[in-house]
Amino acid sequence: MFGLVFLNGTTVKGAKQQIDEVRALAKAEGRTVKFGVNGFVIQGADRTESARAARGDRRWRRSRDHAGLRRPGEGGASTAERIGMWADSSHANLVQPNDGFKTRLLGRPELIAERIRAYESGSA
């Protein structure tokens, strides 16, 4: 049997840590797991990281204003550490609020493809 785990947006390193932990738990039970990562893509010709971040920030502000989202860190304290699911997130990372921009899938198509391959291979 297999299960499916859908991760909130995170860095490649963060995704690898979560995937390794869940795979070990599943293996102990004789199961396998498939994974998906929440990531928002903004494709454009922005040449710099700061230009891509500014574009993402504009998108975030528009979606936040329409959805009436709370500030990061106000998502509750549902984790064992009592810090809340989005305690280490900024507004720039959140959209509807699942950290979709933490994946950094922003910019030229080649850069987006490179970052997706990093998630597939588990290497930053």
From TrEMBL:
Keyword tags: Flavoprotein, FMN, Monooxygenase, Oxidoreductase
Molecular function terms from GO: alkanesulfonate monooxygenase activity
InterPro entries: Luciferase-like_dom, Luciferase-like_sf, SsuD_RutA_monooxygenase
Compositional bias annotation for Basic and acidic residues: 48-57
Region annotation Disordered: where it falls in the sequence: 48-79
Domain Luciferase-like span(s) in chain numbering: 5-122
SUPFAM superfamilies found in the cross-reference section: Bacterial luciferase-like
A single GO BP: alkanesulfonate catabolic process
Protein name: LLM class flavin-dependent oxidoreductase
Highest classification ranks of the organism: Bacteria, Pseudomonadati, Pseudomonadota, Alphaproteobacteria, Hyphomicrobiales
